[in-house]
Structures are given as C-alpha cells and as structure tokens.
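Holo prediction — 4-nitrophenyl phosphate.
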Amino acid sequence: MKTKKVLFVCLGNICRSPAAQAVMQRLVDERGLAGQFELDSAGTYGGHAGDLPDRRMRVHAQRRGYDLTHRSRRITPDDFDHFDVIVAMDEDNRRTLARLTATVQQTRKIVMMGDYISRNPHYDYVPDPYYEGSEGFELVLDLLEDACLNLLNQLVLK
Ligand code: 4NP
C-alpha cells in the first residue's frame, strides 16, 4: 500500500483534531502500519497557532495513554494537495474547508468523521468540547476511538 496521508481538521486544532491524530496514530502503530500512514492535524481558525492542545484535552487523553504533543496550526492551501484524505470533525468545519478548496479533486478529499461513528446513535459529528465540562472531553475521545477504527479499516482496504 502506498503511503496514505490523512489530515484531521477542527476549528482550533487544540481539542478534537490533535486528539484524533493521536488516537489514529496509536491504531496505526498497533497494527504495524506506521510506515504506511502520514498523519497530521490542523484548524480552520489560526488563533491558537503554535499552542499545545488544550490542557483539559491533554489530561483526558493522557488518562487513556495518549500523549498529545501536536502544535496547533491553521490549514494551508498546500494541505489540500498534499493530503489524500481531509477529515472534518463537524459540519461547520466541512463547510469552511469546502470554501477553501480550489479544485473538485481537493473537495473530494473531504470526509466527515461523523460518518465513521458506529457506536453512538446520537452523534453524526464530533462536538466541540471547548465550552463543555469533563464529559465533553470524554465524549470526544469515545467518539474518536470508535470512528478512527472504522476509518482505518476503510483506508487499509483502499
Ligand atoms: P477544537 O476546539 O476545534 O476542537 O480545537 C476549539 C478550540 C478553540 C476554540 C473553539 C473550539 N476557540 O474558540 O478558541
């Protein structure tokens, strides 16, 4: 399989998308597929550029063994060419991403993380936890662990 380049995108790139990147990296590593995947994350908003993930996200992720070390960055026009798959956490992210694309080929790279959620019938997107309490961060991790597994299974078949 040729290297698959996957970019996870949320608003600030300090909560959901760096967590998604770490969850997927662990799954890829566990399967011995590290050499076949390039994973990264970015935000549609650049206000947190250079920051580590939100401390609350880091604490909740650490409890599950994920070390979040990504530095926030805003998505760039080059990302739409470089990455094969661009994974939006919610509809707002998808709309913003679609507006930034330059070609139909780029637009086709955008997929919804919610389409890979299989264990929680109440969510077809990954909700923004920024203004939520602990449960919001736990929910994000539950949804991402489920969705990343299904997304990875689909990507390895392609
Ligand atoms: P994220 O969460 O999109 O999952 O990284 C947020 C981070 C920052 C803000 C909103 C959501 N903010 O408004 O600064």
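READOUT: Strands lie at 4-10, 37-43, 85-88, 110-112.
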